[in-house]
Design a protein that fits this description.
With about 400 residues, the chain is mostly helical. The protein has 3 domains: about 45 residues; about 60 residues, Type II secretion system (T2SS), domain F (Receptor-associated Protein), CATH 1.20.81.30; about 250 residues, Receptor-associated Protein (Up-down Bundle). It is built from 15 helices and 3 strands. A 3-stranded antiparallel sheet has the order 2-1-3. The longest helix is centred in the C-terminal third of the chain and has 57 residues. It is flat and about 90 Å long.
């Protein structure tokens, strides 16, 4: 196998086959190789040089899971149309709008041309292509059904990303509104309430208890705002630190999230849907169950479910049927266990699990819609209490003064 060398980006100018001026970019291991490739494509190069890096090192656009899902679908479609693998990757890469994705695909293409299989080339990019993706591609290459497996991978990725986006959308909106509400409340307490306080002093009358409480809150926040800000930032960084480094903290957090009303139900059902969809895809690819369960555990999105799947893997490796291994964990619904049992008996595990995944994905969709409907009145109540309460507190003395004058 040829030794790999990092490719370099070049910009070039030249003439095409009909002597028209043209220009473009190309990635190659050296300028000589770049010129040779352009000559092979029918261009006569007049100038070529390394692509200049941005002066201030602009951050490259990140590669998203959505980009990977689209790549899998496009590659499956092109191979289904009869295009060779290298040519298909080249077309997808050059046509991609994300420069980072384009550069990665050109590297993958170069690795394959140097003798790697597609699975080996993808494994060089573990952040973008997880173990499950690489295992499915490897199985497809070994069985000679890469096109079919890529289609299954694309379907899996599309459904998985669709479910993630729906859950994020449902949770992002209320969180964003509440954050803005608390920011507006802080601004009112810091800058607006003190103006009213000066006005009230000129009245020379006793203030209502509610107004006095708000003014005292404003005075306290003006005196200690930096402490509050420090506590909030400290809490955020502490949370982030332990979430990235502490397995025990993540275990506690995931277990607590499962107990939250509505949200916990969404997380439970989405974990089951991911389990079923992933295992269905890997079963259809013909991967051994013990090997498949390792990737399935990582796809659940919740440590409690991931640990349950790894316990099931140990039991299956010791000769136990998957249905009984699921029963012993105590977290899988009876319906899921029965569908797995039917799949094991009939030899149609992938079809049964696909039906389970479809059912729970629809359940998640309904719960997400219900969550959005439920959160709207709750958000309105919180906004009314925070912002409306401050406004009422500031106008109570004015109303009281008006009543005295009248």
């Amino acid at each position: 196998m040829a030794e790999k060398t990092d490719q370099i980006d070049f910009v070039w100018q030249g003439l095409d086959k009909v002597k028209n001026k043209t220009k473009g970019e190309i990635s190659a291991i050296s300028e000589v190789v770049a010129k040779a490739e352009l000559r092979r494509q029918g261009f006569r190069v007049t100038s070529i040089k390394k692509k200049a890096k941005p002066l201030f090192g602009a951050r490259p656009k990140p590669i998203t899971p959505g980009d990977i899902a689209i790549f899998a679908r496009q590659l499956a479609t092109m191979m289904g149309a009869g295009l060779p693998l290298v040519q298909a990757i080249d077309i997808v890469g050059r046509g991609h709008e994300n420069p980072s994705m384009q550069a990665m695909l050109m590297k993958i293409k170069g690795d394959i041309e140097a003798g790697d299989t597609l699975a080996e080339a993808l494994q060089r990019h573990p952040i973008q292509f997880d173990e499950l993706f690489c295992n499915l591609v490897r199985a497809g290459e070994q069985a000679g059904v890469l096109e079919s497996l890529l289609d299954k991978v694309a379907t899996y990725k599309e459904k998985s990303e669709s479910m993630k986006k729906k859950i994020k959308k449902a949770l992002t909106y209320p969180i964003a509104v509440l954050v803005v509400a608390f920011l507006v409340t802080a601004i009112l307490l810091l800058f607006v309430v003190p103006v009213f306080e000066d006005l009230f002093k000129s009245f020379g009358a006793d203030l209502p208890a509610f107004t006095r409480m708000v003014i005292d809150m404003s005075a306290w926040l003006q005196a200690w705002w930096y402490v509050v800000l420090g506590i909030l930032l400290g809490a955020y960084y502490t949370f982030d630190f332990f979430k990235k480094r502490s397995k025990a903290f993540n275990h506690f957090l995931d277990r607590m999230l499962l107990q939250v009303p509505v949200v916990g139900l969404i997380i439970n059902k989405s974990a089951i849907a991911r389990f079923a969809r992933t295992l269905s895809t890997m079963s259809a690819a013909g991967l051994p169950l013990v090997e498949a369960l390792v990737s399935v555990a990582g796809s659940c999105g919740n440590i409690i479910y991931a640990e349950a799947v790894m316990k099931m893997r140990e039991d299956v490796a010791n000769g136990q049927r998957l249905q009984f291994a699921m029963q012993q964990t105590g977290i899988w619904p009876h319906m899921v266990q029965q569908m797995v049992a039917i799949g094991e008996e009939a030899g149609s595990m992938d079809a049964m699990l696909s039906k389970v995944a479809d059912f729970y994905e629809e359940e998640v969709d309904n719960l997400v819609d219900n969550l959005s409907s439920l959160m709207e009145p709750i958000i309105m109540v919180i906004l009314g209490i925070l912002v409306g309460g401050l406004i009422v507190a500031m106008y109570l003395p004015i109303f009281k003064l008006g009543a005295v004058v009248s």
